[in-house]
Each structure stands twice: as C-alpha cells, then as structure tokens.
Amino acid sequence: MTGRRTTVVTGVLGIVAAGLVGPVATPLAAPAHAEVRECTEGVTRFVPQPPPALERLGARTAWSLSRGRGVVVAVVDSGVAATNVHFPKGSVLPGRSFVGGAATTDENGHGTAIAGIIAARDIGERSGVVGVAPAATILPVKITGGESGGDEEQQRSANLAPAITWAVGAGADVINLSLSTTADRPDVRAAVRGAVRAGVVVVASAGNREQAADARDGVRYPAGYPGVIGVAATNAADVVTENSIRGPQVDLVAPGDNVVTTNRAWGDCVFSQDQQSSSYATAYVSGAAALLRERLPRASAAVLAHRLEATASRGSRTVRNDTSGWGVVQPYEAMTTVLDDTVAGPVAPGGVARPTPPPEVRAVDLTPAPDPREPDRGAVLWLLLGVGAAVLALGMARMLRLDRSA
Which is the catalytic residue, given 66, 78, 86, 110? Predict the structure, then answer.
C-alpha cells in the first residue's frame, strides 16, 4: 500500500486498498459528527471495534474448543509485516521470499491483512483486531513485490507452484492462497496435489469480478483444482454479491467486507467497505481450518474440508450451487457435529453419492365410477314427480268445483 491512504471513521469505518485480489474502493463520506482519521503509511492507528465477521462466524464460541494452537498457516502472498504489534515474537516464522528480501516484510500490505484475519493476537482495549485462530502461527511465503520488482502477475504465476511445494516442506498445516486466475497451470496443479496428499488443507479465492481480466463466471484456479476449498465473499447479510465470480470452484463462502485487520507495520485498518473481496473471505476460511486442525490433529485434509462444507450454513442441506457453494463456513459446528450417513450435504471422503430415486409415476384412471345410490336417487325423483302431479291434479279439481258452484 505504498503511498496510499484510506479513511477510517470512528463509528462509521472507511476502507483501504488491498493488493492481489482485494478491491480498491472509494472512501465513504464521513458524517459531520464523526472523528475522521486516516490509515496512512508510517502512522500507527488502531480500530477499537472488533471485526464484524467474528460474530457472524461464531468465532468466540469456537474458541472454547480451539484457538489454532500449534497449527502453522502458510500465507502465500506479498509477505507479512512481522513488526505489526498484533504479531508478537514467535507468531510469524521467518518464512521464505521468492522475490528477494525478507518474507517478513510487505510492500503491498495484502499479505499482512490476510495474516491478521487468520491469526492476529489480541492486544487489549486499544484495538478490536484479533484473528479467527488467534493462537495459530503464520508462515509467510512471499511471491510478489520484494527486491526483484517486475510485473506482479508474472511473479505470482512463476512463483506459485514452488511456493506451495516449499510451504508443504516447511511444515504448513494450512495454505492460504488469496489469489485466482483462469490459467490452468500443470505445475500449480501438481503442487496442489502434493500438498493435499501431504495432509495440508489448501484454501483459495474463487475470484473477484472487479479485478479479473476475464470478468465472466467460470472456473478459477487454484480454487478449481481437486482438494482445494474455493471461497467466495458475502456481504453483511451473508449474501454473495455480483463481485464474486460464480463457478464450480466455489465450495464455501465467508464475510468479505468491513474487514478489520492488520495494516502492515502500523496497527489496524478497515478493508473493503464498498465491495466484497474473496481474498479476505478466503482468510476467514483458512482461520476456521486452523481451528479444526488443532481439534482433529490426525484427520486428513479431505476430512477437514468435508467437515467445513457439510456443516456450513445454507438454505438447502442437500444442494450446493455455483454462487455460494455449500454455504457460510461455521467453525464451531465443523468441530462439534457428528457426521454420518444421515447428514445431508457433500459426500464424505471415500463415500458414495446417495442415489436420487426417480419420481414415482402412476397412471390415474379418470373413468367416472358408478354411483351406488343412483337407483335410490331415481326412485326419490319419481316419487317427487308423482306427488307433485297429484297435488297439481287436486288443485285443478278444486278449481273446477269452485267454478261450477259459481
């Protein structure tokens, strides 16, 4: 975020620009009574409000079972500014930079924001920022920016596969990939396959329309590779907006706006108030995966992914779609739900898809059935006609007698 600033309004929070696939939004006008401050490079600011997403995901309830302790989350991104006060000593590993310089520096700011969503430490009343998995350890893997300069897109493409492979070898339990492309690269596919086989949970952005060179809906990678959890972004009402790319790569959704998180070396800021970004949604799911990994240390990556998807909040328990996948991630439910064959949703690893029985088709006989009381009705009808005729005859006979008498 070099040379950029964004507005933070106390009470009504502004936004900041985010790198890789995070949207760059226009700051909102502040109300007259609000104190306006700016998240400016070199100036440390803190946001006292906690991240709204933590409540929406039930994170504090999940912390009663897990805080991500002992779990290593690789952030393959622009580096992580380890000097931020939310990252005390030991919370961010040295990592590796594929573009020169240290992985614990961040010229862009995107990687630091992602790391804060996942594992920022609570620093008390002056700041509301805390990560979804506040005891997890961040492993920064820097694939863009740094000392080498050059085109960022080319850097990401060239460095992504070796970065994933290196993160697996360095002991990552979860790999966060807040990036997406339409390019299906064999080297990245192979690196992802190796990570999943090694038991690493790989989480990737399903794509943002505003940043995409091709804004059409469709599969995005690495989210589209087998074993990867693809994530789209929701607004405050848990609705996936038009800014998220639709496609078969969408497995889960998570909050993607009003993201209160770490701002490089300078405290806090609020990202994506005007738009929803799958970058940040991806980080929330990675944090949830870290909680689950501590809770189930020996489970496979496929089992953890299935738990996150099967327990997600959605309208129909049996159906996924290309907009919101299996629904909004729910960390506590993922750790506590007993999953068996009676639970509707995605097929469990090694399971068989439930057959959908064909609708039963039966011929309907529309031939009118005989009325068993028809003879009775006929007799009554003739009786009524007879009585009527007799009454009529009596009436006419009386009239004739009266005429003769007159």
Answer: 110
pTM above 0.85, yes or no: no
One-letter identity of residue 252: L
Predicted confidence (pLDDT) per residue in 309-366, tens digit: 999 999 888 889 999 999 999 999 999 999 887 777 888 888 776 665 565 666 766 7
Neighbours of 322 (CB within 10 A): 17
Q: Spot the catalytic one: 279, 286, 306, 324.
A: 279
| Gap between the Cα atoms of 233 and 41, Å rounded | 27
Quick check: is 279 catalytic?
yes
pLDDT tens digits, one per residue of 139-157: 999 999 877 666 778 888 8
Query: Is 77 in the active site?
Result: yes
What angle, rounded to 10 degrees, do the helices at 186-197 and 301-310 form? 90
247 contacts 206 by C-beta, under 8 angstroms: yes
Measured distance between the N- and C-terminal CA atoms of the chain, rounded to whole angstroms: 122
Q: What is the number of residues in the chain?
A: 406
Structure tokens of 368?
């009118």
- Rounded Cα–Cα distance for residues 361 and 348 (Å): 31
Selected catalytic residue, list 77, 251, 257, 268: 77
Q: Which residue has the tokens 């159906």?
A: 319
Which has the closest alpha carbon to 174: 347, 295, 51, 291? Answer: 291
List the domains of the chain with CATH numbers: 48-336 (3.40.50.200)
Give one DSSP letter per residue of 95-117, joined into a string.
Answer: -EESSSS-TT--SSSHHHHHHHH
Cβ–Cβ < 8 Å for 254, 234: yes
